[in-house]
């Protein structure tokens, strides 16, 4: 983010971060969360909707170079794509802050995931019911890495709706993995999805402590 300002012609000064971007003084804990999913499932939209600071995005215009490489079936209208990551921040309460990292969806950019996953306590997997197949490999990678996750079913307009248990069966998800409805365009809905992840992580931590 560029925080440069100039009060005099030809002279630049650095004003520092905007007041709304400053981390609250009451914050005592920060958690890194990754937002994952296939190409075009709404990751950038979610980060932008819920972030309390101006989100950092790395979207670039899609070009002919991606033709035949990126699967755009069902999202032919998409003109931009994340090539590195999205970043945002949300305060869950006065003490707990979540740092959100949105991953690129195309498989050719998955080599970036290792760095983005480092230090992450959990993940939100966004699911598009029109293109469920793009999430199979994503969930498989999370399970391989041992990253706890919840699934947010992003309710796109015109997308088919299925009972949660039917979706769980189709995705071969364990009964313990939470699944929730999510509208990536709606801040409250996104926040509820993140809270579901926090509650799930707390449950896992409590269970692990009891077994020690």
Automatic annotation (TrEMBL):
Record's keyword terms, sorted: GTP-binding, Hydrolase, Nucleotide-binding
Task: Name the domain of life.
Answer: Bacteria
Tell me which SUPFAM superfamilies the record gives: P-loop containing nucleoside triphosphate hydrolases
Q: Which Gene3D superfamilies match?
A: P-loop containing nucleotide triphosphate hydrolases
Where exactly are the transmembrane stretches of this chain? Answer: none
- MF terms in GO: GTP binding; hydrolase activity
- Asked if the record carries the keyword ATP-binding, the reply is no
What Pfam families does the record point to? ATP_bind_1
Q: Please state which protein family the record places this protein in.
A: Belongs to the GPN-loop GTPase family.
Under what name is this protein listed? ATP/GTP-binding protein
Native source organism of the sequence:
Streptomyces telluris
Highest lineage ranks of the organism?
Bacteria, Bacillati, Actinomycetota, Actinomycetes, Kitasatosporales
